[in-house]
């Protein structure tokens, strides 16, 4: 029985509701996590701030562009090195009028760090975070997790970090 449950968890995302539906947890590979993120983007009313290491997912990029078209203020912060490939949605998003910046890394021991975050804050009250980059691989083939938190106090902490990263980011 335990083996069957483990196998099921490996192939399907799980949504765990806790604290009165404040927290939802998804595991990939599965489209349930992708759909949950798109649903939150589609429900955005005023703002979407995204800090993500790698962004190659066309469905997520399209949802972001639709949100902008609805009048939602959108800011995207990407790692500059991770988004130098032909699959990055940086140019696609910029061409749609999305405010996109590239993170300036910290430097230590003569090495550059990464902007390795994977989070979004929606309307100052919803946080999307976890291990998943916003890539097709994260939802189709990788073992990842996505956590959606509906709490203003948590969103405030993430928003503060986003603003810090945004202020020291590269305008291009």
Automatic annotation (TrEMBL):
Key words of the record: Hydrolase, Lipid degradation, Lipid metabolism
Pfam family, one: PLDc_2
Documented EC number(s): 3.1.4.4
Catalytic activity: a 1,2-diacyl-sn-glycero-3-phosphocholine + H2O = a 1,2-diacyl-sn-glycero-3-phosphate + choline + H(+)
Gene Ontology BP annotations: lipid catabolic process; phosphorus metabolic process
Residue span(s) of domain PLD phosphodiesterase: 111-138
Family named by the database record: Belongs to the phospholipase D family.
Keyword set includes Ligase: no
Annotated GO MF terms: phospholipase D activity; RNA endonuclease activity producing 5'-phosphomonoesters, hydrolytic mechanism
SMART domains (alphabetical): PLDc
SUPFAM superfamilies: Phospholipase D/nuclease
UniProt name for this protein: phospholipase D
InterPro entries found in the cross-reference section: PLD-like_dom, PLD_domain, PLipase_D/transphosphatidylase
